[in-house]
Every structure is written in C-alpha cells, then in structure tokens.
Amino acid sequence: MLRSILRSSTSNASRRGFASGASPERKVAILGAAGGIGQPLSLLMKLNPLVTRLALYDIAGTPGVAADVSHINTGSEVVGYMGDENLGKALEGSDVVIIPAGVPRKPGMTRDDLFNINAGIVKSLCTAIAKYCPNVGTSVAQMALVNMISNPVNSTVPIAAEVFKKAGTYDEKRLFGVTTLDVVRAKTFYAGKAKVNVAEVNVPVVGGHAGITILPLFSQATPKANLSDDEIVALTKRTQDGGTEVVEAKAGKGSATLSMAYAGAVFADACLKGLNGAPDVVECSFVQSTVTELPFFASKVRIGKNGVDEVLGLGALSDFEKEGLEKLKPELKASIEKGIKFAHQN
Ligand code: NAI
Description:
By secondary structure, the protein is α/β, with parallel strands linked by helices. It contains eleven helices and 13 strands. The strands form four sheets. Strands 3-2-1-4-7-8 form a six-stranded parallel beta sheet, sandwiched between helices. A three-stranded antiparallel beta sheet has the order 11-12-13. The protein has a two-stranded antiparallel ribbon with strand order 5-6. α2 (38-46) runs parallel beside α3 (62-70) and α2 (38-46) crosses α10. The chain starts with a helix and ends with a helix. It binds 1,4-dihydronicotinamide adenine dinucleotide (NAI). Residues 31-32, 34-38, 58-60, 100-105, 114, 118, 121, 125, 149-151, 153, 178, 181, 209, 254-257, 260 line the site of 1,4-dihydronicotinamide adenine dinucleotide (NAI).
C-alpha cells in the first residue's frame, strides 16, 4: 500500500494544483498520536492523498510528532494538539477519528487485562467525540466515522456505542472496531503456507478481536489452495495468536505497532474512500450487527458515504469454522456485556 500511496500522492498533488476540488476536503484526527501505533499511523495518514487536514492529539508528545510529520511534502496540513483542553479543537470538523490511545499488552497479559485502564480512556475520548464531532450539515448532525483501535476492541466498541447513545449522537453506521490487523495477518500467513502471491490474497476474518473470538475463514480464502485440515488448524491458531507472538517477541516493550499502523491506515483509507463515494469498498470490521444473535460482530462491511452501507453475512462455513463460531460466542458476548456495563456504571 505504501507504494501505491506514494504514487497516488504525487498524482494527487499535481491534480490538486490544476483542478482543485477533485476530491472533498477531509479531516482525520488521531487520538493517541504520539504512541507506538500513533506515530507510524500519523506518518501513513500524512501519505494518504485523501487527507487534507491531519489533527494529531495525545496527552503528551504531539508537538514533536506533528512538527516532524508536517515536514513531509504531501498536501495535507498537520496540527498537533496536546492535553485535554485542546481535544475539542483536534476533533472539530473531523470526518474520521482514529483511536489508538491507551496501554498495550505486556507478555502474559490478555487484551481483557487492559480493560481497567483503557475503558476509562475510551469513555472520556468518546464523550468528547460526541460533544465536538457532530458536523452539523444542512439538516442532520453527522458524527465522524470512529475507528476504534484501543483494546479490548470487543469491549471498547460497545463502550463507545453506549457513550454516544447517552449523548444522543449514536449512529451505528459510524462506529467501527478496527480488526484489519487480523485480516492482514491471515493474508500473510495464508500466502506463506499456500505459496501464493500475498498481494492477491483475500481472507475474511469474523467474530471479534481477541484470542478465539478471531475467526479467520480460510475456507473462503482466495486464491484457492489445497491445504490440509491440520494446516488450516495451524493457520487459524497462528492468526488468533498473532498479537501474542508480537507481544512475546517485543518482550515487555509493547504489542504490535508497525503492522497495526499499516492495518489502521488501510482501514481509515477505506473509510475515506467510502465517504467520498467510491464504489464497493469492503473491509472486515467489528460493528453493530444482526449477522449473529450478538449485538456486535466482525464481518465484511460495505462502507459508503454515510459509513456502514451494508453488513455482509458470513457466507458458507466449513464444519471447523462453524465449530469455531459457536465456541467464540460466549466469550464475545461476555466482553460486549462487560463494556456496556462499564459504560453505565462509570
Ligand atoms: P502506546 O502506549 O505506545 O501509545 C498509547 C498512546 O496513547 C500514548 O502516546 C499515550 O500518551 C496515549 N494516551 C493515553 N491516554 C490518552 C488519552 N486519554 N488521550 C489521548 N491519548 C492518550 O500504545 P500502542 O502500542 O500505541 O497501543 C495503543 C492501543 O492499541 C492499545 O490499547 C493496544 O492494545 C491497541 N492495539 C490494538 C490493535 C488492534 O488490532 N485493534 C493491535 C495492537 C494494539
């Protein structure tokens, strides 16, 4: 993607010079922009030609990150905002708000172990989004598209939904849990095992974003490959444990940041394309859903001018995937309920 971003960045810069207004002005805010994910994500969003304004917010460190990123000769304007008193300015007028704020895992921790700290951070940031983000258009107040990266995503997305409901700004079409890294991993691992060109691989990943709730659907992977049942089981486990593989390799220095920034940039780019009316923008995401009996679920989602255009169904599952789906439901349900309960109690 980096290469295509760089290429399109050049062509877009010249296009802007000659025919202004070719694509709409778009403001992207990154909350947690000075962190391990936030910094490379800021870089990648600065390279995205669809972004005209980039607001980098964190509780510390954003002046440096913003000064650094702003020197890159792409079209967008970059502004750093630091501290709670500047959060409103960072958010105002945003079309997409990406949230990678919060603590990452250390070895031995599950994503749920992060709940106590990150739930509060997400709640306060979403309260501010509800206050500052509705872009009051001609008749309806439109919320920015929120891309939730902070873990545990299975709980932070329901927390955000409850905060927005309470503020009267909830639009289920505009809230996305970012599960793209699971897709990125599934594609990479599948391509390695199937010996196919990774650039051509597609694998839907459904369910949630933690351990066994991550369910890659390798039976639907393309290009098709003749993998054995054992190979599918191993690929599934590696995808589910991909985050832990990185946490252990980093040995106490955090979790995935670079691959996550890439995944976050891919997903935000899809949101911008959808907002701009590009046809057939489909990514997997953890959204409000009726695909199963659970109120939130990750599956393929078509993104359009108002956010979620359509939540796509699961398609045909193998017996192994059907079993995985039933196994993940109780854990995912509990994580969703934990988020909802937190939002109401705190
Ligand atoms: P990090 O600790 O390097 O950075 C987090 C940043 O958030 C810091 O700069 C910190 O100052 C900032 N922050 C803390 N409280 C804040 C607040 N109230 N407002 C704004 N910023 C605030 O952590 P890292 O590695 O960047 O991870 C961030 C989050 O992303 C973690 O929750 C992690 O678990 C999650 N993550 C999610 C993935 C996914 O697939 N969805 C994959 C990898 C990580």
